Amino acid sequence: MKRTERQHLKENEVQNFVRVARELYESRRNESTLIIAFALAAGVAALGYYGWREHVQSRATTLLAEAMTVQDARIGPPPAPGTPASGLYFPTERERAQAALTKFKIAADAYPSSDAGIYARFQLAATYMALGTPAQAAAAYQEVIAKAGTSIYGQMARLGLAGAQARAGQYDQAISAYKDLAERRDGPLPVDGILMQLGRAYLDAGKRTEAQQTFNRVVEEFPESPFNGDARKELDNLKKT
């Protein structure tokens, strides 16, 4: 059934229900009838919303899956003549990223408030970063934050935004964002990983003392961290220069 036909049927159902409820109310103006009418109306509205939400989520997930397929496509030459096709491919990583960018944007713009749409926007931002356009990445990360709030997507987008700001040379903003995230020890993001990014932002900003202090925190406060070795290397490099 076409979308317009389904929509027309839904509209007719709602119109018919409203008409029946009105007739009941006019014929029997008592409290119990009015309560029943409102309860029925709420039930129809809830069912309609649930169906609409499931349709949105399904379509958004489909668009996201299409984008992920492009993102995971093979890099390399086309299949040799006479050999069976081996799926989607791109000659270079940049061409693949550009194609994925278009797909992620379609999914994100079509259903911006759905979980799939929010994740597509996050991937859109990450792809902008991979293509070397941090300003566009920052704008996309900010949209994710606006939609996702304090959820895991929102926290990841804040981390991504700080990275985009650092890449763009906005070191003070990036450092402030990293410091704020590092203070949230009960949050979903690993503090030791955030501290590593903070230390590198300090380095890029030319703040060697602050960088050293931050890498020392990783070594001392997170001795079992997988970032511990990287922090020690950064400290050794600081001593050599």
Question: Got a strand count?
Answer: 2
What value does the Rg take, in angstroms?
Answer: 26 Å
* Tally of DSSP helical segments: 10
Order of helices and strands: HHEEHHHHHHHH
| Spatial order of strands in the largest sheet | 1-2
The count of domains is 1
| CATH-derived topology | Serine Threonine Protein Phosphatase 5, Tetratricopeptide repeat
> How much of the residues is beta strand, in percent?
under 5%
What CATH first level would be assigned?
A: Mainly Alpha
The overall average pLDDT, rounded, is 81
Parts with pLDDT < 50 across at least 5 consecutive residues: 1-11, 28-53
**Biggest sheet record:** 2 strands, parallel
Characterize this entry briefly.
By secondary structure, the protein is mainly alpha-helical.
Commentary on this structure:
With 241 residues, the protein is mostly helical. The chain has one domain: Serine Threonine Protein Phosphatase 5, Tetratricopeptide repeat (Alpha Horseshoe), CATH 1.25.40. The protein is 76% helix and 2% strand. It contains 10 helices and 2 strands; from the N terminus they run ααββαααααααα. The protein has helices at 3-27, 31-71, 93-110, 115-130, 134-148, 152-167, 171-182, 191-204, 208-221, 228-240; strands spanning 74-75, 89-90. A two-stranded parallel ribbon has the order 1-2. The chain is globular. The relative contact order is 0.05. Mean pLDDT is 81; it is low at 1-11 and 28-53.
